[in-house]
Write a structure and sequence with these properties.
alpha/beta, inorganic pyrophosphatase (n-terminal core), Diaminopimelate Epimerase, Chain A, domain 1, 6-stranded parallel β-sheet, 6-stranded mixed β-sheet, 13 helices, 42% helix, 19% strand, binds guanosine-5'-monophosphate, binds manganese (II) ion
């Protein structure tokens, strides 16, 4: 990672540092943002994390109060921070529209130097320095490497390591996807040696579910699962009415698509979620097929080969029909 020393110098020489990440925060966007923020703090500098929207409930345990301001609820404050920044980090995304169109436009009009740290394929060129390693398990792993290759590994502590660990387990399905390397395990081994409490991280993140959330998952699997054996595809879907009948809060369906993927003989799982007059699509693959191309080509989306997402401007029924009609071409 040849850019690491240069980025370290930029941090040292900047006065207003902003850390951004993508819409619908997940464990990796929250984890990498927080780890970088804490590293910058240890260097004696300050930074502001600005995300497009708020942190889901199941990840709130890791963030200290008010440490992240979000564009959805604090628009003017975020604009102010971004406009006065001299250095902006773009973590865990590869195109500026992943900030949402308004925040993306603000980013492009900012005078700050921009640094991307990301692991999605095909980064677009909207930054000054790019660290884009699609083979990395997570952006959080790349933040560890930034600290390492900038010559600052002795500053690594459990405060920085805890969100890095969270990001890695979130993006690797707890070490089961092919993006996990021996390097990932080496990094995690180091984190445990310096006191990162993996049991606590698992319990706070994955074993602290609300009963409504568990019931929602059971309902969707019992009533809204369709298996298309001829294409090794499983499909689950949920409407806003169903979500509200289970008192849905943001983050409640996180990870559910992996349950649909866990079925024996299934290679691809699709999850369709109604959002107003749009439908959010999540695709996962066990590794035989790439799922990002169908989303890039037809559903305004993208992501990784084996985990990708997109959006369709139509009803949930029509979106599923459109997806099914494309199965012969892609899978
Ligand atoms: P998820 O299905 O969990 O929302 O997202 C899976 C992966 O696809 C993540 O790496 C995420 O960054 C990416 N992704 C999700 N939604 C979108 C989208 O609308 N556009 C693009 N380009 N990528 C997405
Ligand atoms: Mn990620």
């Amino acid at each position: 990672m040849k850019e690491a020393v240069k980025i370290y110098q930029l941090i040292k020489n900047s006065n207003n540092i902003v850390i951004t990440s993508h819409l619908s925060p997940d464990g990796d966007s929250i984890g990498s943002s927080l780890a970088l923020y804490r590293f910058i703090s240890v260097l004696g500098k300050s930074a502001q994390i600005c995300h497009p929207d708020s942190c889901p409930d199941f990840l709130k345990w890791i963030i200290d109060d008010d440490i992240i301001i979000d564009f959805e609820n604090h628009r003017l404050e975020v604009i102010d921070q971004m406009k006065s920044a001299d250095l902006i980090f773009c973590l865990d995304y590869n195109t500026q529209d992943r900030l949402g169109s308004s925040m993306g436009e603000i980013l492009s009009s900012c005078k700050a130097k921009k640094v991307m740290i990301d692991h999605h394929v095909n980064p677009s060129e909207f930054v000054d320095i790019t660290i884009s390693e699609s083979s990395a398990s997570s952006t959080s792993e790349l933040v560890y490497e930034l600290i390492n290759y900038s010559g600052n590994l002795e500053l690594m502590n459990s405060d920085i390591g805890t969100p890095i660990y969270l990001g890695i387990i979130s993006d690797t399905g707890s070490f089961r996807f092919s993006s996990v390397s021996s390097r990932t395990h080496y990094i995690v081994s180091h984190l445990l040696n310096i006191g990162v409490d993996h049991v606590n991280i698992y319990q706070k993140t994955f074993d602290s579910n609300r009963i409504d959330k568990i019931k929602l998952h059971s309902y969707i699997i019992s009533n809204r699962l369709e298996v298309i054996n001829s294409y090794k595809v499983s499909i689950i879907s949920v409407t806003e009415d169903i979500l509200s009948s289970f008192n849905y809060i943001k983050g409640d369906t996180e990870g559910l698509v992996n349950l649909a993927l866990s079925i024996k003989g299934i290679e691809i799982a699709a999850f369709f979620t109604q959002k107003g007059d749009k439908v959010k699509i999540s695709l996962r693959s066990k590794g035989l097929f790439s799922v990002n191309t169908i989303l890039t080509d037809h559903f305004n989306g993208g992501g990784h080969k084996y985990a990708a997402g997109g959006i369709n401007n139509d009803s949930i029924e029509n979106t599923i029909l459109k997806f099914k009609s494309l199965l012969p071409k892609y899978f």
